[in-house]
Amino acid sequence: MKPTPQPTDRLAASECFVCGPDNPSGLKLSFELQDEYCVAAFTPDKYHCGYSGITHGGIIFSALDDVMANWLYLRGDRAVTAKCNLRYKAPLPTGTPTHLKSWCLKRKGRLAMMAADIRRCDTDEVIAECDANFMITP
Prior knowledge:
This protein is of the alpha+beta class. The chain has one domain: Hotdog Thioesterase (Thiol Ester Dehydrase, Chain A, Roll). It is 15% helix and 37% strand. The chain contains two helices and six strands; from the N terminus they run αββαββββ. The protein has helices at residues 7-10, 57-73, and strands spanning 32-34, 37-42, 79-88, 98-108, 111-120, 126-136. The chain has a six-stranded antiparallel β-sheet, with helices on one face. A hairpin with a 5-residue loop joins β5 (111-120) and β6 (126-136). The longest helix has 17 residues, at 57-73. The model has no long low-confidence stretch (mean pLDDT 89).
């Protein structure tokens, strides 16, 4: 098993739009491992909309992409998205608390096949789900 990333490694992503603490425009999501999952909480605000009052799909995709990447990163692997299949299932009103969850479907060499979903906290309704391939970088 690879070592957990050290604080100096985190500096490489300190300005990440999704998780970077130093990005003033970022979402500032915080990811953690819970058993075989990577999880995070996210509440979109009024500045994350597409249509008025509805969270922009690109924001939802970004959060899902990062929860999958962090499943790998928090286990010691840096990876980049190679391909993603995403399905939006319901609109997400801004101001609605959600939870993100990702898991690994399969690892083969430098390829990791991942899956994730985002759900409303109040109803557990699936907002979007995806599966993606990530390429582990040296």
